[in-house]
Design a protein that fits this description.
alpha/beta, Membrane-bound Lytic Murein Transglycosylase D, Chain A, Rossmann fold, 4-stranded parallel beta sheet, 17 strands
């Protein structure tokens, strides 16, 4: 079933967004627990039963649960109450429903829709919950900067008929919708956004090419072909004086041939030289692929760690024989996962890693975000690359912040210079009737002085 969580972010009500109840629920607001409050007292205050309050907050069923000062809990509508039945301007909640009253007055608010799997049933749901929380944190930041934002979030799992969600009264009034996660739900949501003039941000990987025919779509995900085409373009623009050495690592399962093939074509068009060698070649044969007069930049045709380690060992052997050789490495996004184990080697070989994100745990801004997330949700960020909460935060700041500044004219043409992890900028594809495709690419550079720099394109 579809569940609706409606938040008015005019108030600072950042809170736990966990959704565990399998039944449809409508939440009228969040309540921050004060010292001395009890479950009984809160239920009485909002004219609901204890059972209704516990049903809206499944954590209360846990053995040893204690209501603590500073906790945020969901306040449901009383049983049988239908929020949609309220007349325009009518107060729809009893008790101290300041959030609901304020939201009703916001005629100039930016209305945000979230249509993603928001549940604890599987990994998809948990990752999207973290992403959603990041969006809420971005909205809180924008609110402090003067934005009026109303967020409607719908749980749209893999087996949901998204048309049911689109029939909800609040869906058509959105200025921007984030979703869906599943490709099969894209066509209906794409048509809906186009019909109602809603900006549609598709944040994660999908199949299909609706972006080519819908001017309202912002497609964040880049296919491997799109990504590596842009990486190759930036590579030949940056490394104009280097000699390129492509190392065949004999990994028949690798999908990186799409990059090395694209790169070799781009090099040929620019008249730049390259040689090909094999990781199993003898030391003498391997050395012949390198230039002694130009800096060399080494590209593997796989991203796997064992092959990377084998090539690094080969380069170590070569450098010990010819210390004057200048060698850099150019890798793949997957190498970011190996960085903490290979930091010294990456820096030794002046390594560049192309990516569409970079999570820097040492950044002060990143540390502040992760600390704030822990305080708000009593959880650490999940150990995924990229971090989903930070992705949600960056998306909120870029898209909702862009709408705040430019209104309906926002098309994402400017590079995001303030992203914590996932910088973006967009170009229109498919002519004037096409949508907007993210073309942002970054090179993470592990410098020989053991510093790290980010080159954004």
């Amino acid at each position: 079933m579809i569940r609706v969580l409606k938040y008015s972010l005019i108030l600072a009500m950042m809170c736990c967004a966990t959704i565990a109840d399998a039944q449809s629920q409508n939440y009228r607001e969040m309540h921050k627990v004060k010292k001395g409050e009890t479950v009984f007292g809160i239920a009485k205050k909002y004219d609901i039963t204890i059972e209704e309050l516990v049903k809206a907050n499944p954590d209360m069923n846990a053995v040893g649960y204690e209501l603590k000062k500073g906790d945020y809990i969901f306040i449901p509508y009383p049983a049988g109450y239908k929020p949609g039945a309220a007349k325009s301007g009518q107060t729809v909640a009893k008790g101290n429903s300041t959030a609901a009253q304020t939201a009703a007055k916001q005629t100039n608010a930016i209305r945000v829709g979230i249509m993603l799997p928001l549940h604890n049933v599987d990994g998809d749901g948990r990752r999207m919950l973290e992403y959603y929380r990041g969006i809420l944190m971005g909205c809180e930041k924008l609110k402090k900067e003067g934005a009026n934002i109303v967020v409607n979030a719908w749980n749209v799992p893999i087996d949901a008929d998204i048309n049911t969600t689109l029939a909800k009264n609040d869906a058509a009034s959105c200025n921007v919708i984030f979703g869906p996660l599943y490709s099969k739900q894209v066509p209906a949501l794409s048509d809906f956004a186009k019909k109602h003039g809603i900006k549609l941000v598709i944040p994660f990987s999908i199949t299909g090419n609706d972006v080519a025919t819908n001017p309202n779509i912002f497609q964040v995900y880049q296919s491997p072909e799109q990504f590596y085409s842009e990486v190759a373009r930036q590579f030949v623009g940056r490394f104009t004086t280097q000699h390129v050495v492509v190392v065949d690592c004999n990994d028949r399962s690798s999908d990186k041939g799409v990059f090395t093939f694209t790169l070799r074509e781009a090099l040929a068009k620019k008249g730049l030289t390259y040689t090909i060698t094999n990781v199993t070649n003898s030391a003498e044969s391997f050395a012949k692929a390198f230039s002694t007069t130009k800096p060399n930049i080494v590209v593997l045709n796989t991203a796997r760690s064992p092959e990377l380690n084998a090539v690094i060992a080969k380069l170590d052997q070569l450098k010990s024989s010819v210390p004057t050789l200048k060698i850099s490495l150019f890798g793949y996004t997957e190498w970011l996962m190996y960085a903490k184990y290979n930091m010294d080697k990456f820096c030794k070989y002046d390594t560049y890693v192309p990516t569409h994100f970079y999570y820097n745990p040492l950044s002060t801004a990143t540390k502040n975000f992760t600390d704030d997330y822990m305080k708000k949700f009593d959880q650490s960020l999940m150990d995924y690359m990229p971090r989903f909460a930070i992705t949600g935060y960056d998306h909120a700041m870029y898209f909702i912040g862009g709408i705040k500044k430019q209104g309906n004219k926002f098309v994402g043409s400017e590079t995001d210079k303030n992203a914590l992890q996932t910088p973006m900028h967009f170009k229109r594809v498919g002519g004037q009737n096409g949508g907007l495709q993210n073309v942002s690419v970054s090179f993470v550079h592990y410098n020989t002085n053991h510093s790290i720099s980010i080159i954004n394109y």
